[in-house]
UniProtKB/TrEMBL annotation:
This is Efflux transporter outer membrane subunit. Keywords: Coiled coil, Lipoprotein, Membrane, Palmitate, Transmembrane, Transmembrane beta strand. The keyword Disulfide bond does not apply. The lineage of its organism: Bacteria, Pseudomonadati, Bacteroidota, Sphingobacteriia, Sphingobacteriales. One of its GO terms (molecular function) is efflux transmembrane transporter activity.
Length: 481
């Protein structure tokens, strides 16, 4: 008997070894890592330190701050991003539950008719003639089966497969939180950009209406001169055409203001509403200096880079779990409760029963499916790696472009402002010369058109400075708290 037991254990361990060897071979541990070398500094950009400006210090306009506060609470994209965090958190709780035994309350009732030539049929028939049982223990045929109690199953995580899945789920919770911050940052950038665009359009409308007044005055003068024989109808029509061109720009600008206000309300999660603002963009204080720091700090500040980095870590855990899925699983199944073939005897103390069984399951015919899952997870991990590297490259490019953009547009604005001053003087001189007959009407019209175009371009340049500042703040991982 002892030799039979030893032989049985020998066969058992041989089968376990046969199951383990193919599972462990051919699937080495894989860890996906970025080999992208980040530059130590931003090329041709002066280092400004390593501390980012807070959002409220950066956006000092109180009207913009109020818009941002209301938008964070009601914007559909932000609310959707919050739900993605909830989904990831629920998935983490689900994966964590797999590490614990599952316990279910069972209340079962069944009936089975045994044939005369079955093992249970013959065994039960003979048992009923035994002198060792009483009348309550005789087995009827058909045989009822009642059970009331608890059943439990538990997969022992001896290889760490379930822990890797939980690790992946936890990392994705962190990634979803970074994703939420990325959505908030994008919303702040969109809303601030639209706000500054609106201020620029307000200034453009002011410039256009000022020029309409000047051109109306010039048209009246040339009409009077025509009556006196000092001007021709051609001059009158030229001044009139100039006026109509400027008046058409007024309606175009009004439409742009309407669309921009509607965009701001959309970002705030509203159908309509007044957008409060009372500051001209030309006198509005520029956002504070943003400290860029070294490029590697983008990994800590930019939420999209942080999210893609965490997604890469999650896929590394997925790859490890998919690899360990080839290994055998060890399961424990247990039950305890009352079990009887007669309902009247179900709660009899003699009906109390319990049992436990352990089993080892190794994949054989479903290895092809596991292999496909492993290869798919590996490919998705590679994709996450490329996304991570792309976000790093994109972040570096955005910081470079916006840093130089703020600098160059500021210099461009200074030159354009001097141009506008010179053209305003030219309009005044042209009007004076025209009145004394030393300049023709075309020179007056040209001077008026040039100053209008230059003032509109000045407003656009100022807007571009603000937009580049906002983009710089976003590209450095700014957001809103």
């Amino acid at each position: 008997m002892d030799s039979y037991k030893r032989f049985s254990f020998y066969i058992f361990f041989v089968l376990v070894a046969v199951a383990l060897l193919p599972a462990c071979s051919g699937y080495k541990a894989v860890t996906l890592e970025s080999k992208l070398v980040i530059p130590d500094t931003f090329t041709h950009v002066k280092d400004t330190g390593n501390t980012a400006t807070s959002a409220r210090q950066f956006f000092t306009d109180t009207y913009l701050q109020q818009l941002l506060d209301t938008a964070i609470k009601a914007n559909p994209d932000v609310l959707s991003a919050l739900q993605r965090v909830e989904v990831a958190s629920a998935n983490l709780r689900s994966q964590g539950a797999y590490l614990l035994p599952s316990v279910n309350l069972n209340a079962n009732a069944g009936l089975e008719k045994y044939g005369d030539y079955t093992m249970n049929g013959v065994g039960n028939y003979d048992t009923n003639f035994s002198n060792n049982i009483n009348s309550d223990q005789k087995i009827p045929n058909p045989t009822p089966d009642y059970f009331l109690g608890f059943r439990s199953t538990w997969e022992l995580d001896i290889w760490g497969k379930l822990r890797e899945r939980k690790k992946a789920a936890f990392t994705r919770v962190l990634a979803s939180q970074s994703g939420y911050r990325m959505v908030v940052t994008s919303l702040v950038a969109q809303l601030a950009t639209s706000y500054y665009q609106l201020l620029a359009l307000d200034y453009e409308l002011k410039v256009i209406r000022k020029n309409i007044t000047l051109q109306n005055h010039a048209l009246e003068i040339v009409r009077i001169q025509k009556l006196g024989g000092r001007a021709t109808e051609l001059a009158v029509q030229q001044f009139l055409a100039q006026l109509k061109r400027t008046q058409s720009l007024e309606y175009q600008t009004l439409q742009q203001i309407t669309e921009t206000e509607n965009m701001i309300n959309f970002l705030r999660g509203r159908f309509n509403g007044k957008v409060d603002r009372d500051t001209s963009i030309n006198i509005l204080k520029l956002p504070g200096i943003v400290r860029t720091g070294v490029p590697s700090q983008l990994l800590l500040n930019r939420p999209d880079i942080r999210e893609s980095e965490l997604q890469l870590k999650a896929y590394n855990a997925d790859i490890s779990a998919a690899r360990k899925a080839f290994l055998p699983t060890v399961n424990l199944t247990a039950y305890t409760g009352y079990n009887a073939f007669a309902s009247a005897l179900l709660f009899n103390p003699g009906s109390f029963a319990y049992g436990i069984i352990g089993g080892l399951t190794a994949p054989i015919f479903n290895r092809g499916q596991l292999k496909a899952d492993y290869q798919r997870t590996l490919a998705e991990g590679q994709q996450a790696l490329y996304t991570y590297q792309k976000n790093i490259l994109n972040g570096y490019m955005e910081v470079m472009n916006t840093l130089k953009g703020v600098e160059n547009f500021q210099k461009y604005y200074d030159q354009k402002r001097q141009e506008v001053d010179a053209l305003n003087n030219a309009v005044s001189v042209a009007n004076d010369l025209y009145l004394v007959g030393r300049a023709n009407y075309l020179e007056v019209i040209t001077a008026q058109r040039n100053v209008l175009d230059a003032e509109l371009e000045l407003a656009n340049t100022r807007r571009n400075i603000f937009i580049n500042s906002v983009n710089l703040y976003r590209s450095l991982g700014g957001g809103w708290r």
